[in-house]
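Readers outside the structure-tokenisation community will struggle with the description of the input data as it stands. Showing the layout once, in full, would remove most of the difficulty. For illustration, here is how one protein appears when written out as sequence plus structure tokens:
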Amino acid sequence: FCIPMTDCYRTVTAAELKFFNECDTRHVPVIVLVTKGDAMYVDAIQELEGEGLEIEKVPEMVEKKEGELRERWLEYIKHRLDECKFPPREYFSLQKLVMAEMDKENIDCTPLMECTANGLNDEGLQRLLISTQQSSIGTCAKYAVTK
């Protein structure tokens, strides 16, 4: 289930709440993928400028503030959706992966794969998913030992 992070003031929509309150997802693991996190860049600049900082002199502060805004927004989403009757099993921000490189052959998608595996409530499905991931022997070994 994708939720765009269009700005740091975006709320959970009525449609999203309706889905997680009315659609019985107990037998279908739902993972919320937070997308468009790069939209927080402008909000980060505005907040820092509001604090009187000159952005040109401290570009690393923009990145840090952007990360803080993303984390705060994700916590808000988790809090709201976890109160629903059928909350998501997992949450994942696609910003954890380098979005510009997702089309590359050797990109490390281990965090997304681990989130997906953790969201599966059936151990057999977890094993099937992990065992097919030829690109991450470490993930295969981790789940083989822990499960």
In short: The chain has a mean pLDDT of 78. The longest strand covers residues 31-35.
